[in-house]
Amino acid sequence: MTAFKTNTDQFIKQRMMTYLKEQGYNFYQSATLLKLTQAEREEMSRYWAE
C-alpha cells in the first residue's frame, strides 16, 4: 500500500458510502465502518443528501 491517496481510493470510498446508504446506514455509521478521517468525512458529507 502506498502512503499517498489516489483517485482510485477516493472513488472506492465514495462507492462504498453510496452502497451503505442504499443498505439503510446513516452517514455516521457509514463513516465509522469505513474508518474515514475527519477530512474524508467532510469531503463525503457534500455528497450525502438525507
Largest sheet: none
Q: What is the gyration radius calculated from CA atoms?
A: 11 Å
Poorly predicted tracts of residues = none
- Helix content percent band: 55-70%
Task: State the helix count.
Answer: 3
Distance, first to last CA: 33 Å
Rounded mean pLDDT score: 84
Strand content: under 5%
What letter string, H or E per element, gives the SSE order? HHH
Number of beta-strand segments: 0
Structural class: mainly alpha
- What form results from the Cα inertia axes? globular
In a nutshell, what does this entry contain?
With about 50 residues, the protein is mostly helical. The chain contains three helices and no strands.
Keywords:
50 residues; mainly alpha; 3 helices; globular
Describe the structure.
By secondary structure, the protein is an all-alpha fold. The chain contains three helices and no strands. The longest helix is centred in the N-terminal third of the chain and has 16 residues. 8% of the residues are buried.
